[in-house]
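Morning!

As promised:
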Amino acid sequence: MFSGRLQEQYTDSTQQSETAQLGMWVFIATEVMFFGVLIFSYMIYRVAYPEQFRLAGHDSFILLGSINQALLITSSLTMVLAVRAAKADQQRALVLLLGVTAALGLAFLGVKGFEYAKDAAAHSVPVVDYIFKPGEHRPTEIFWCFYFVATGLHAIHLSVGIALVLILLVRASQGAFSPGYDAPLEVIGLYWSFVDCVWFFLFACIYPLGRAGP
Amino acid sequence: MSARMPPEPVGPYVIGWAVLLLLLGLSVLAAYEPIGPIFQPIVHFGIAATQTAIVFILFMKLRGRPSLKWVFAAAGFFWLMFLFGLSTVDYATRSGFPLR
């Protein structure tokens, strides 16, 4: 994928780039199923135990979740601008924007780690260290299981994205990309924005619950 | 083949970014409004779906002329509908769920 030359089965670099993008869309379709199943299981239990999920969701940290969403939205902008810079042969802007994208991703993981520490301090880690607050019963642990599994899987996806963007950054600093060859940037850009979209739905599942009173 | 192209306009991307942040703000504000257990998920998942549509169309470049990638982009959601539908029928017709 990171080879800079035109492969023999393609007529031009546009066809090569579009084929690579199509491959990433196939992968994204499998990821939609992957996270879709996870969110569906959440919905089943939320419908079954609405009051317990409301109580559990109230203990999540909506400010930290919102900061993280703003970081990811901004990183999607910088990533798409990096692809634009490659198409316009703006090499310094390309390197800078890829660096900012990776930094925003790392900032997300930093905030998430801080949030996990606060969750642990509030004894909200199911099985390991969980204390029921007044009115809470076992289904609140289901909420927190979903929280850690879903956000953990999302963090793994984001970590892979950061590693890929850093590889692109190194190659961009060596002048590997040009207006005629930007397929890896386009493909990783698709993956990066998709990981952003997953967070929109995880945010909707976790943070708004239990804020407006009974 | 490798000729320098005129840069795409930045404006649509910046506007899209601003709208996404605005929708995030709306989602946070809605969380503190007593809109009820029925409308709450509709509003929040509706905002998430709108944000996703903006990212898909603008940042993931699904706009423009019809393309095969539209089919692949829709395929995951298409099969997800079957999964959601059939699984919902399963849980809706179980007599012992949820446990009380």
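Chain B is about 70% helix and 0% strand.

Hope this helps with the figure draft.
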